[in-house]
């Protein structure tokens, strides 16, 4: 797997946050849920917002780890190239 593919896979995971947001909007706007009591609608919305927040935090943590790994990887490669050039 190339680093670009990994980056794209991570970015695609972030769609989960939008999917949960869309589900919440659908519940609020859909006729299918018009008979849902306000209490139950609030509970469902709070659960979905909680899920959205948790996944947002997880994906931010994943992205930060990915960026740190890339930075370290490129730093090590520059050092190896520098060391190799000095030996020649």
- By secondary-structure content and strand pairing, the structural class works out as mainly alpha
Q: How would you state the average pLDDT, rounded?
A: 90
Provide the β-strand percentage band. Answer: under 5%
The number of strands is 0
How many discrete structural domains?
A: 1
Helix/strand order: HHH
- Number of discrete helical segments: 3
Shape: rod-shaped
Euclidean distance between termini CA atoms: 32 Å
Low-confidence stretches: none
Subunit arrangement of the protein: single chain
- Tell me the helix content: over 70%
Radius of gyration over all CA atoms, rounded: 22 Å
Main sheet?
none
Description:
The protein is mainly α and 88 residues long. The chain has one domain. Helices cover 86% and strands 0% of the residues. The chain has 3 helices and no strands. Helix 1 packs antiparallel against helix 3. It is rod-shaped. The model has no long low-confidence stretch (mean pLDDT 90).
